[in-house]
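Milestone M4 deliverable, item 7.
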Amino acid sequence: MQSYLVLRRNAWFAGVDLERAASRSSRVTNEEMAGRVRWIRTYVCTEEDGSLGSVCVYQAQDAEAVAEHARRAGLGCDAILPIVRTVVIADDPIAFEATETNS
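Output delivered:
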């Protein structure tokens, strides 16, 4: 499977919206698209207008599978970019335990 970076800009206005989206994303990933899409990690950021956006890493059969996942989960999807190389300089400074509410 190929790795992809998914950009979601200004996607949520509150943490509760993000949690609901993460729950939908997990369900679609695990129940509807198992074997086609794998959600690896998400970095949540605050946008200039105060809303929340994210940068996510997925593995998928192809970019269309990532786009289909976003549609099924009701998620915005501003860009899907194939990852050609990962350069790790240091571990992430803050580690979060994966739960259905992290997205």
